[in-house]
Design brief:
With 208 residues, the protein is an alpha/beta fold. Helices cover 35% and strands 23% of the residues. Strands 1, 2, 3, 5 and 6 form a five-stranded antiparallel β-sheet that branches. A five-stranded parallel β-sheet has the order 7-8-9-4-10, with helices on both faces. The longest helix has 17 residues. The model has no long low-confidence stretch (mean pLDDT 94).
Length: 208
């Protein structure tokens, strides 16, 4: 069963996507050269930007007919640009949950997702003191903890070495499988896609 499908989608008259189907409860990797529209595709899927033409369907409904806030909570995008507030890891969890009008999670809940993302730092650790790779792992852990129906990760291991990338992707894949979560991952690293992707979509640069 497909949870997301794209048909004849064109963005800014420059990027023309093939028809795409994303299977429910699986991990799909988006792979392709720079400039082929991988990151743009994720923004189109959760309604951050709109196509010039074509149709994007989520759970049988055109995304144009879905409330934007609800859509972006059901299809959660973790962008390449890591944004953490000044303060501790615990404070960052709390602020993101407050932003979504959700109850503050328990410390055990926070620690569970930090462990999945190999970010097992004390909750009182200040985020501004952490390295880029450490911040990236904390950022992913916060978003993963919301347990959306669809989790989209844009180059989630870009600041990590290959060993860390492999472990974290394995953990996220196992968690997604166990919880029937659909995961979409943009990655330039093909071996990672081949190892953990149930489905790989290869994009090419659009021709004029």
């Amino acid at each position: 069963m497909d949870i997301i499908s794209l048909s004849q989608v064109v963005f800014q008259s420059m990027i023309r996507y093939p028809d795409i189907k994303i299977p429910k409860g699986k991990t799909t990797f988006i792979h392709g050269p720079s400039g082929c529209g991988k990151s743009t595709l994720l923004k189109l899927i959760n309604g951050t930007i709109s196509p010039d033409s074509g149709e994007i369907v989520f759970n049988g409904n055109n995304i144009d007919d879905i409330d934007t806030i609800k859509l972006r909570r059901d299809i959660l995008l973790v962008s390449q640009s890591v944004f953490l507030f000044s303060g501790t890891i615990e404070e960052n969890f709390k602020k993101y949950y407050e932003y979504r009008d959700q109850e503050t999670p328990s410390k055990e809940h926070m620690e569970k997702f930090l462990q999945i993302c190999r970010a097992e730092f004390p909750l009182e650790t200040r985020c501004e003191t952490m390295s880029g790779g450490e911040r990236q792992r904390v950022y992913i852990a916060i978003f993963l903890s919301f347990m959306p129906e669809v989790l989209m990760l844009d180059e989630p291991t870009s600041a990590l070495d290959n060993t860390s990338s492999d472990i974290i992707m394995s953990n996220i894949k196992n968690f997604s499988d166990d919880n029937d979560m659909t995961t979409i991952v943009v990655s330039h690293y093909l071996p990672l896609a081949q190892k953990y992707g149930d489905n790989i979509i290869a994009l090419e640069r659009s021709r004029p």
